């Protein structure tokens, strides 16, 4: 369960940035290519940062096809364009970032 280590990293960063001030809510943006299960991340975050609400913004994986020029959203983690080409550049879905922190 890699979500627990991700949750611990987020909680550590939140503690550092809050500098002792109480935190009410944290919003994170997670791209589909990280294969994070939202419920597992929330559970791990509650273990690492009890009492802080975690809001998760999911970002789909997107690619730009070098063969046909189309930018498309991927239905899964297989890096293929809908035209069948594997010659793609990932343009979204790798995000893993803290977006906001709401202090109490």
Automatic annotation (TrEMBL):
<feature type="binding site">
    <location>
        <position position="81"/>
    </location>
    <ligand>
        <name>Zn(2+)</name>
    </ligand>
</feature>
<feature type="binding site">
    <location>
        <position position="2"/>
    </location>
    <ligand>
        <name>Ni(2+)</name>
    </ligand>
</feature>
<dbReference type="Pfam" id="PF01155">
    <property type="entry name" value="HypA"/>
</dbReference>
<comment type="function">
    <text>Involved in the maturation of [NiFe] hydrogenases. Required for nickel insertion into the metal center of the hydrogenase.</text>
</comment>
<protein>
    <recommendedName>
        <fullName>Hydrogenase maturation factor HypA</fullName>
    </recommendedName>
</protein>
<dbReference type="InterPro" id="IPR000688">
    <property type="entry name" value="HypA/HybF"/>
</dbReference>
<keyword id="KW-0862">Zinc</keyword>
<keyword id="KW-0533">Nickel</keyword>
<keyword id="KW-0479">Metal-binding</keyword>
<feature type="binding site">
    <location>
        <position position="83"/>
    </location>
    <ligand>
        <name>Zn(2+)</name>
    </ligand>
</feature>
<feature type="binding site">
    <location>
        <position position="68"/>
    </location>
    <ligand>
        <name>Zn(2+)</name>
    </ligand>
</feature>
<feature type="binding site">
    <location>
        <position position="65"/>
    </location>
    <ligand>
        <name>Zn(2+)</name>
    </ligand>
</feature>
<comment type="similarity">
    <text>Belongs to the HypA/HybF family.</text>
</comment>
């Amino acid at each position: 369960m890699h979500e627990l280590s991700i949750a611990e990293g987020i909680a550590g960063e939140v503690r550092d940035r809050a500098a002792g001030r109480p935190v009410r809510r944290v919003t994170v943006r997670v791209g589909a290519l990280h294969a994070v299960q939202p419920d597992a991340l929330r559970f791990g975050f509650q273990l690492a940062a009890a009492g802080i609400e975690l809001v998760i913004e999911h970002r789909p994986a997107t690619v730009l096809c070098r063969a046909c020029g189309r930018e498309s959203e991927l239905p899964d983690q297989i890096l293929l364009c809908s035209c069948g080409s594997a010659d793609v550049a990932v343009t979204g879905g790798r995000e893993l970032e803290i977006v906001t922190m709401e202090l109490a």
